[in-house]
Design goal:
4 helices, 7-stranded antiparallel β-sheet, 22% strand, 262 residues, alpha+beta, single chain
Amino acid sequence: MKLNEKSVAYYATCNSPPDKTGFLFKKGERNTAYHRRWFILKGNMLFYFEERESREPIGVIVLEGCTVELCESESEEFAFAVKFDCVKARVYKMAAESQPAMESWVKALSRASFDYMRLVVKELERQLEEVQEEARSSQAKNKLKKHQPQVQGATSSHPTTFSLQNAEITGPSQEGGSSRENGVSWNKPTSLPNGVSEGCVWEGDCCGKGDGVKPPTVPPRRKPSGGSPESPVSPGTGCFSKLHDWYGQEVAELRTEWLQSQ
């Protein structure tokens, strides 16, 4: 690889922030002794200077297609090597001043290559896709909950009732609590203070709808006896209220007798 020396020297000493700096002992290629050098790591380029105050680097290592390994030799304490995959490529051996410094440099150099950065970017993209997918799924669930109709509770088993004058009519679903005759149920009437019954309660059809069941006919009015009330045609019943009371008493007596006979 050919590099422009001026451009490399400027990049090494410019004001751009370095990734890591520090002293390391570098083993020479011809002179196998270790020499103390000042190192600056910027991106995937490792510059080394003869002194910390030097204006130009004396060498640069491009950290692409390489691995950083620890040296197993006991004579080389805190040493590590930068090895390339190319055949006959040079092996750079360096040593730190302490164990923490060595671990820090090995970690920084291992992460300096663009290949490592590509792996990091791919992993971050994968994590971002997972987060976006979870967000889309959560939004879809929230929209589904908003548009989903609420489930109504069980309907009441009690039939709907309505009153027609003095009569209470219930639907065919009413069960028990009454005697039936000809498909019609009669409940015990409630007497009003004036002696007139509140009216009958029956099950079945009303006003000619449904199954055609009609309320039973009113029992025939009995002939007045000696103990019966005064006849409505008598002069004493000319008032409407008296006439109403007279018929009410008669109907109440007839209804009482009819219920007792059941």
